[in-house]
Amino acid sequence: MANLDTMMPPVTERSNILRWARKNLFGSWTDSLLTVVGALIAYWAMRGFLNWALNVAEWEVISANMRLLMIGQYPIEHAGRLWLWLGFLVFLAGNSIGIWARGSRYAFLLLLAPAALALAPFGSEPKRWLVALTLTGLVGWGLGRGKPEVLKRSVIAGWVVSLPIIVILTHGLSSSETGFMPVVRTTLWGGLLLTFLLTVVGILFSFPMGVALALGRRSELSVIRWFSVGYIELVRGVPLITILFMAQLMLPLFLPDGWTLDRVLRAMVGITLFSAAYLAENVRGGLQAIPKGQYEAAEALGLNGVQTMIFIILPQALRLIIPILVGQFIGVFKDTSLVAIVGLLDLLGIGKTVLAQPQFLGLQREVYAFISLIFWVLSYGMSYLSQQLEVRLGVGKR
Amino acid sequence: MQRDAQPQQTTIPFWRDERALKVLGQIIFVIIVLIIGALIFHNMRVGLAKQGITLSYSFFKNVSGFDIAETAFPYDRNSTYWQAFLIGLVNTVTVGSVGIVFSTILGVILGVARLSTNFIINRLAAFYLELIRNLSLLVFLIFWYLGVFLKLPRVQNAVIWPGDIILTNRGVGIPWGIPTASFPTFRLILLFGLILALIVFFALRAYSQRTGRAPLTLLWSILTLIVVGALGWLLLPEKPLIFDLPFVKGLNLSGGKILTPEFMALTSGLVLYTAAFIGEVVRAGIQSVSKGQSEAARALGLNGFQTLRLIVFPQALRVIIPPLTSQYLNLVKNSSLAIAVGYPDVFYVSNTIQNQTGRAVEMISLVMLTYLSISLLTSVLMNWYNQRIKLVER
Predict the structure, then answer these.
(1) Domain range enclosing B254
(2) pLDDT by residue (tens digit) across A366-385?
(3) What part of A 360-389 touches B (C-beta under 8 Å)?
(4) Are A186 and A265 in contact (CB under 8 A)?
(5) Is the domain of B145 the same as that of B98?
(6) pLDDT by residue (tens digit) across A208-217?
(7) What is the CA radius of gyration of chain A?
(8) Which residue of A236, A371, B151, B359 is most buried, as measured by CB atoms within 10 A?
(9) What pTM was computed for the model?
(10) Is B361 within the bounds of a domain?
């Protein structure tokens, strides 16, 4: 039988613009009415927005405070350390794209993003760094393409150690002011830098905890099962902000005398505890989708319970829920803005500082629109990439 | 095979007996949890004792000494902390219920629009959903509050929308009914109408189950209520409600109902945000009903509306209800972000109490317990509804 997709439609149904408009815009009189109303709304909203963005808005508040919004009060003389780990990440990303996205002709264009950002109103030094980042990424891409088999292991190792590298470079090593990489206290971390760190730490630490809770919820041991159920339902029943307040106010009370946690660390603990409960439910969904035959087959091969979980069940279950996990990670990223309420200077919190400057009073729209834009671009970018990845890898379709 | 080699062994040592190990493991787990819990509790007791605090809720009877902008029942700074807490609770429930109603309406519209064959409507809905779903709710709420509602014109240059809605940076005035002397009677009439509507509802359902016909049950019951209400309104000698229009009086708004910028920003922000997620839920639900179902319905001679009402909608509802429940729960939990726009919900009021009294442990546990109860109540209700409509499998 002929393939229906490749068959040409009859002449009368071939599209041309008028026919398309008649079918999709003016099918009936209600349809026409909706089209007109919709077009009016779109036109009105578009005109209002463009008029504001191009004529009314005073964008100097953003360009003048770009550094504050990006890294907060992080000392400028140590900012090179941040560029260093950013370069490391971009290099790894270039490597990964070179190795794993060989099929895609356009994936490497992603590495040009820093160069595109250099067109934004940054100072001249960040611009030089951004161009250097692009070159790093492209070199990494070239190496990854050239020697994929050699580099595979080192790239994976690189991603594994990237978090410690980021934290060490950001935090610094020696406590003296003049020593090698002096410590930058967490109170100075801010802006997008802090948002990024909170997100990454929250995701990475909540992952093992969430998997453990999901396994606990499916455990045959009733004590462990009830403990997991209790934890998951308790955390999912309360808003994140109460957990963040608990972490800020009650966590210091829970610790023995003399132990202290700084405020950023407390927020990280709060986000991790919160995110783990949601992750556990997602992982449980993946576990439930694995057919019983897989367990039986593993048992027949002589694997014990732990081996079955690690080698047979979890890899399949986690692969199934990759799209859901990406969605949850985007959620964590968006939720980190709540730390602004407990007084941390993340991207949202620093906005208040920017607006407190006397020359920029009353520019709330510009500042918060810019912050929204950053959140939107990064969230949308992540979900778009994961969709592309799903299509390419056929995740969830095996 | 091991067992074949030594068949005489009937008991195995307990450290290799799986059942014993399981019990042992659980006991060890409980002990660890108890030790950690005791340590935490001990540290807390010692820490609090240093500050001279013993855990108790007796401070709830003390005078609060702070004002609350929006109160559902009489409250002033001489009232107790307990009353302040209740005010916050009522405000949370208000925002939650108003938010749920409006976000459901907007969400259903968005979900249906997303599936429209009309190109422009479809694209507009898709654009809205993508725009909102990738924003951080807190940033959105703050933008909405500081960038929109507080940037409305001053009272002197108030914007007046058709229907006597006055928009100013001091709040939004809407027309509101003031009860008159005959209002209690009217309330009784409405109650009677409600009972009658319920009778009609159950009678029609019984009729439908007996005969297999499908009368418009909900429509007829609502009509009954409306007719009774309208009759009462017309027949009472004095109108039960007088419509009070808002107007500008000096530097303030007066008359009607004045909704504060905080309430408006919080509620409309939550509605706009949650509606985007509900829209996706509705779209997925409608798409989950296979096309063959509506084609079969058409083949049986049902018209478009009947197909939607009797075939597509009931099946879509089964898919929609569970995720819709979690969106409702999210809305209620997200209403705690009121603290960012200064609306006195239960979390904001509790935070004020905690700042004044230093009772962090008591207040945070109480707030958590409150949200937990609201969440549980909502999910119990929705689960009950879900049980009723779910597919009866044979």
Answers:
(1) 81-175+245-389
(2) 999 999 999 999 999 888 88
(3) 364-365, 368-369, 371-372, 375-376, 379-380, 383
(4) yes
(5) yes
(6) 999 999 999 9
(7) 26
(8) A371
(9) 0.87
(10) yes
